[in-house]
Amino acid sequence: MNGPDVTVVVAVYNTMPYLTACLDSLVGQSIGRDRLEVVAVDDGSTDGSGAELDRYAERYPGTVRVLHQANSGGPAAPSNLALDHARGRYVFFIGSDDHLGPEALERLVDAADRWDSDVVLGRMVGTNKRYVHQAVYATTRERLDLFDSDLPWSLSNTKLFRRDLIERHGLRFRTDMRMGSDQPFTLEACVRAKKVSVLGDYEFYYAVKRDNAQNITYASRFEERLRCAEELVGFVAGLIEPGPRRDAVLVRHFTWEVAKLLRAEFLALAPDVQRHVHDRIRKLAEAYLTDGVTARMAPEERLRVAVARDGDLDALCTIIGQQSDRSLPEVVVDGDRWYADHVGFRDPAFGYPDDWYDVTERAAAILAKLTATGLAWGRDAAGARALVVTARSRRAELAELSAEALRVSVGDLTGVTSAESSGSGTVVRTDFAVDRLLAVVAGTGERRIVRAEVSALGGTGSAPLRTDRPVAAPRLVARRGVRWHLVTPTTNHKGQVIVAITPVTPGRFLARLRRIWPSGGK
């Protein structure tokens, strides 16, 4: 009897109730259970996952096989054990908290057979706000070049692999890595493969972020993430010779695994831990952060990692703090270019080019970040009752823009705005005529955010008005036609300025009277 076309490997540790949805998606695959086997390894689960696996094995004896072992501390060992028992021509790996689209395996196997591919990717999407990098799935391609595509950004093992490729090269998962153990496996498979393909025309794989965020990626500690970054960079360096091909892969690891360690959470570490982490990242960057890697990195991540390599701990903490600060960055304006005045800018000790700090494309967005200072009722230039919103900006350049370049809006209504220089900054005033506010609001009432929009230096940016202290204006009862509305200018829990407009219905009116005059009062 011929073996199955595909073996699905499932490493399981405490993933109920997600495991049930995973298994249902497997036994219901359109490829048919006669062409499929599921090899699931229970890695010492304590939540009933093992019993759930046994239930499916009893119900589908020719399709589902279950192995039990003591907990190993990660998905590598159970995945390796499952590989030792796999019989399919192809192997597919799935997280036991994830699930597949109904036609996933049939489409993947058909593509691998048609194109003679060793590795096939199927579009993977996130659920419950789980992030999945999408660029590699933009189009269906018979041949995908590891070194000239977005494949390095999608190195999870959730793909179809030809089992002969795995066994011929002795590919197994790193049992010394609690997290990230699938990336060396996947990377080497893609390096050794004669052809890698991608299918982007179907949602093959649904990656689930658990409600308790206990996916290993989300629950891992800082030290584990640091060691994972070191192991991954070292593995790439040992697998691929120095040069553009290695750089094309390392840019992912320095951007994703390394630079993500150098964010606001780094500043919360104890000073001795900061020094230890900085020393390890500096050594990694000194060895492998080449000009070819930095040229491909996004500006903020590139600068953090470069400063970790070239600066002391104080400089590293400063650049992390500067990038983490959500307020307006200090900038240097040079002609028609804007530069963030961050660590290393025009500092001979670092020697970084100006374009590493160029934020000209963000200038409009920077200018649009206004701090609201007041909400009040007044009169506009025509003498009509108006909501007056005042705000300030540290940027004196804002006052130099044309009237059309600065707009402040409530929903679809753009107010009448003026901007004046004030010291080293700008004061902005916007009037919203009450009758116009009511005209653009639906009859059921709405809460609308006040936003500023700026057009400058060839770009457009917008941002909600925020406050550094609570601001509000008294509620106003206003009429439009025969209907009355309650207008409430205030701030929400995010510190954003909002205008809430609520129709005054008979029911609301009577409810308000009851609050004013309690039952039994006269």
UniProtKB/TrEMBL annotation:
Residues 230-317 form the TarS/TarP linker domain. It comes from the Bacteria. Residues 7-133 form the Glycosyltransferase 2-like domain. CDD domains: Glyco_tranf_GTA_type (cd00761). Pfam families: Glycos_transf_2, TarS_linker. InterPro entries: Glyco_trans_2-like, Nucleotide-diphossugar_trans, TarS/TarP_linker. This is Glycosyltransferase. It comes from Micromonospora aurantiaca (nom. illeg.). The lineage of its organism: Bacteria, Bacillati, Actinomycetota, Actinomycetes, Micromonosporales.
